[in-house]
Write a structure and sequence with these properties.
The complex is a heterodimer.
Chain A: H1 2-12, H2 57-70, H3 89-92, H4 95-103, H5 105-111, H6 113-122, H7 133-148
Helix pairs in contact in A: 2-7, 4-5, 4-7, 5-6
Chain B: H1 2-26, H2 36-40, E1 50-55, E2 62-67, E3 72-76, E4 98-99, E5 102-103, E6 113-117, E7 120-130, E8 135-140, E9 145-151, E10 170-174, E11 179-180, H3 191-194, E12 195-204, E13 211-220, E14 223-229, E15 237-243, H4 252-255, E16 261-268, H5 269-277, E17 282-294, E18 299-311, E19 320-326, E20 329-334, E21 340-345, E22 350-355, H6 356-364, E23 368-372, E24 375-378, H7 380-383, E25 384-389, E26 395-400, E27 405-410, E28 415-420, E29 426-431, E30 436-440, E31 453-458, E32 474-480, E33 487-494, E34 501-505, H8 506-510, E35 535-539, E36 542-550, E37 553-555, E38 558-563, E39 567-574, E40 583-587, E41 595-597, E42 602-607, E43 613-618, E44 631-637, E45 646-647
Parallel strand pairs in B: 13-18, 36-39, 38-44
Antiparallel strand pairs in B: 1-2, 1-34, 2-3, 4-5, 6-7, 7-8, 8-9, 9-17, 10-12, 11-12, 12-13, 14-15, 15-16, 16-19, 17-18, 20-21, 21-22, 22-25, 23-24, 26-27, 27-28, 28-29, 30-31, 31-32, 32-33, 35-36, 36-37, 38-45, 39-42, 40-41, 40-43, 43-44
Classes of the chains: A mainly alpha, B mainly beta.
Chain lengths: 154, 650
């Protein structure tokens, strides 16, 4: 009975470090031993491996166009808006995690402890904006480029 | 320990529940099936097996229920304003309610009819008639929205409508109220001489579903009441019932009930197509509106049509025949094989069943009793397959289960009567509560009914529900027809007055559901695809706000420089691309409804502020934890004020 209760608590309340927006590996472990989350830096979804090469500026340009349509209503690069600022996202998350968050938003919201912590901080679930896999890859490239550029207040 | 206490409490509760259940059902076991609760119980989170499209009657709308649960899912606005969805209030939807009489905010919707392919409902569209200002609407079942409304010229009381042919080649319309054609200022006493009926065939485009009035047939001024198309061997024919063959124009309840028999008009529409192709029609001037909603611009356009092709039976031999039918017939229903045509004579003591084969033979052998205005009247016995004897009182409508049985609603004796198509003998009868009008079996007017349930749509509920003042709820009842005896399973309330309804398996419709409108395909002239394009522009006295919405803010959400006397158009594009996330939009003091904007859609609210001041606007459809933060302000200044037109997005 006791064990059951702890498991339940672990499911409902995810232990989050202050600030929330930290890589999954940093998330504090819940009290019960049984509920210790396995770090899963790639997140949950269809993307299991992304091979990154040199930055492809043509991809990044396309990604920027999609970003301007489907993402900017909630994300700025350099500051918090509806969701977190994204200029340094590629330093904080794996490429797989980023693409899974875009493509399989529902699964990430349900399963990923980092996302659960983010929800506690931002209180709004990221919508699935029906981006296809190629466009998600393009957005990733756009964010890689953004990470190399200085903050512009955007 | 605690666990044990819990368990015993639960057991006690279950036991008490069972005890009460046993008590309350004991009295009614005769009336309802023993397993009614389990048969109609759809557990939380599970889907119903069937969609049931139920006419909203004098609400003018179409309601969508699940069967067997009877749960209401959606009221689709069709002919009447719906402030909940902005239907008829947004600039984009206003043209849908345009007619030759101007903007009409209401109608009386009677008969939903699913589109068919090879005589079977295909789940693409559902059509419904507007009775008062004669129209037919087409509802798109990928989005459950009204896609098109066409007005019917030379018509009034569009009751015998919109029944479909077996491949949705045509849906039909007919005049319950005859009129001078063309309509003019005449003495009502000149009815017999001047008043005519019209039976209209509306062509439906195979791919787009778009409707157009192909031709009308000018007929004597009877009241054309209901219709159904032939199928299989009788494909190519349409059967309309008529009453008031007396051509009375006053106190019809007496004066139109004199004749022993009125008529079913049998129309050979394939022949009609030939006559039209031969040019045997008269092109008549006739003004009627054709309104189409474009899903890419999210905007309706209304086009005023100018002429209609009219066929005169006296110049088109073989186009139409009358089948004498006792007495003031209501329903005209064709069985799944296409051989039998059942007439529901509401004042008759029998249900006549005509044979299509015998009718064709009678026409070949010229077994005619007389001619009316060039229309041959076929001898009753020559076309008759048989009569259902002592069926009950007030037979109205018949549906079929696909297993050789017919089910007829009996208005006066408040019952459904099941009878055999083999020998026309009554097999079973079951009471309805009360005064049943139409009835529906899923696919029950098609070639392949799903004969699991019959649903009764009742006119009176009296003591069936908690009372709600002088007007009580409307209601339907679900019966199991899978066995020999019909079993009552469920009562469920409905909106408006339910007339006809149709049902079909849910899986066919589910797989075509649209979840969002693609933002990239949005061609609305005032739509924007990104928050970066949000802006405001002035064109003289018009202010156009290109606004976006996404969880959970508007852009722009501050607006200044509006002056008293301006017309402000909020063109709101919902940037969401996620299922089930519409946003609402409403402005304080706007003489308008809210907007409800579905993902990827643009809708426009027109607002004409009359006083200077600050006007908040907000999202009306709870969208997120920060929905209460989804708000903004518009500043209105006096006419001529020097406040620059601006937004926070400058």
């Amino acid at each position: 009975m006791k064990k059951f209760l702890y498991v339940l608590a672990a499911v409902v309340v995810v232990g989050c470090s202050s600030g929330g927006d930290k890589p999954a590996a940093d998330a504090q472990t819940p009290p019960a031993e049984a509920a210790k989350p396995k770090p899963n830096p790639k997140g949950y979804g269809r993307i299991t491996e992304v091979k990154l090469g040199d930055i492809d500026h043509a991809l990044a340009k396309k990604g920027g166009e999609v970003f301007d349509t489907k993402c900017v209503a909630c994300h700025k690069l350099d500051s918090r808006y509806v969701g977190p600022g994204l200029r340094d996202i590629t330093a904080r998350r794996t490429p797989e995690w980023i693409m899974n968050m875009i493509l399989d938003t529902e699964a990430m919201l349900e399963k990923d402890d980092t996302v659960k912590c983010l929800l506690q901080e931002y209180l709004i679930q990221m919508p699935n904006q029906s981006v296809d896999e190629q466009d998600a890859r393009n957005i990733l490239e756009y964010l890689r480029v953004a990470a190399t550029e200085p903050a512009s207040g955007k | 320990m605690k666990m044990k206490i819990w368990l015993s409490v639960t057991l006690a509760a279950v036991a008490v529940g069972m005890y009460f259940y046993g008590c309350s059902t004991q009295k009614e076991t005769a009336a309802i099936g023993d397993d009614a609760a389990t048969r109609t119980y759809v557990p939380p989170g599970k889907y119903d097996e069937f969609y049931n499209f139920v006419s909203g009657g004098f609400s003018g709308q179409l309601a969508v229920y699940g069967l067997p649960s009877g749960r209401l899912f959606r009221v689709i606005p069709v002919f009447s304003l719906d402030p909940e969805k902005g239907w008829g209030f947004s600039e984009e939807t206003k043209p849908m309610l345009n007619t030759s009489y101007g903007f009409i905010p209401w109608d009386d919707a009677h008969h939903p009819e699913l589109s068919q392919t090879d005589g079977v409902p295909d789940g693409r569209w559902v059509f419904i008639n507007g009775n008062n200002t004669p129209r037919i609407a087409r509802i798109d079942l990928t989005s459950f929205t009204t896609a098109e409304i066409i007005e019917i010229p030379n018509s009034s009381g569009n009751h015998s409508s919109p029944f479909t042919t077996e491949n949705t080649e045509y849906v039909v319309a007919g005049t319950r109220f005859s009129l001078p054609v063309p309509n003019e200022d005449v003495s009502i006493a000149s009815y017999k001489e001047k008043f005519k009926g019209t039976l209209s065939f509306i062509k439906v485009d195979k791919t787009t579903g778009n409707m157009g009035v192909a031709f009308q047939i000018l007929v004597p001024g009877y009241d054309y009441d209901l219709a159904h198309a032939g199928k299989g061997p009788s494909h190519g024919w349409m059967f309309f019932t008529s009453y008031n063959s007396e051509e009375a124009n006053t106190l019809l309840e007496v004066n139109a009930s004199q004749n022993d028999k009125d008529f079913i008009a049998a129309i050979n529409w394939k022949k009609a197509e030939e006559f039209v192709a031969q040019g045997k029609f008269k092109e008549m001037p006739a003004k009627y509106a054709h309104n189409v909603y474009d899903e890419s611009t999210h905007t309706a356009t209304s086009t005023m049509m100018q002429t209609v092709k009219v066929l005169d039976p006296s110049e088109c031999p073989g186009l139409i025949y009358y089948l004498p039918t006792p007495k003031s017939p209501h329903g005209a229903d064709v069985d799944p094989t296409g051989e039998y045509i059942v007439g529901g004579g509401k004042l008759a003591t029998v249900i006549p069943v005509f044979s299509f084969g015998k009718m064709v033979k009678a026409i070949e052998d010229k077994k005619f009793d007389k001619e009316i205005g060039g229309v041959p009247v076929i001898n009753y016995q020559a076309a008759l397959a048989g009569e259902v004897q002592k069926p009950g009182l007030g037979p109205l409508h018949t549906e079929f289960d696909g297993n050789g049985n017919a089910y007829t609603s009996m208005f006066v004796s408040s019952e459904i009567v099941k009878w055999s198509l083999k020998d026309f003998k009554v097999l079973d009868r079951v009471p309805t509560y009360y005064s049943i009008g139409h009835l529906c079996i899923p696919g029950g007017d098609s070639k392949k009914p799903w004969g699991k349930y019959v649903i009764a749509y009742n006119k009176i509920t009296k003591d069936r529900y908690l009372p709600t003042g002088p007007e009580l709820t409307q209601s339907a009842q679900l019966y199991d027809i899978s066995g020999e005896k019909m079993k009552l399973l469920l009562d469920f309330p409905t909106i408006g007055e339910p007339h006809y309804a149709q049902a079909m398996p849910a899986d066919v419709i589910i797989k075509n559901q649209k979840k969002v409108y693609q933002l990239k395909d949005n061609k609305h002239p005032y739509g924007v695809k990104s928050e970066k394009e949000a802006r405001v522009e002035r064109k003289g006295k018009e202010i156009h706000v290109y606004m976006t919405t996404i969880r959970s803010h508007f852009m722009p959400d501050n607006l200044e420089g509006v002056q008293v006397g301006d017309d402000v158009y909020f063109h709101v594009t919902n940037l969401e691309q996620d299922w089930d996330v519409p946003h609402g939009f409403a402005v304080m003091g706007a003489e308008n409804s809210e907007l409800l904007i579905k993902p990827g859609e643009t809708q426009t609210l027109k607002w004409t502020p009359k006083q200077a001041g600050i006007y908040p606007f907000y999202c009306t459809d709870f969208c997120s934890a920060l929905h209460q933060e989804m708000q903004g302000y518009a500043r209105v200044s006096p006419a001529g004020a020097k406040v620059e037109l601006s937004t926070n997005t400058r």
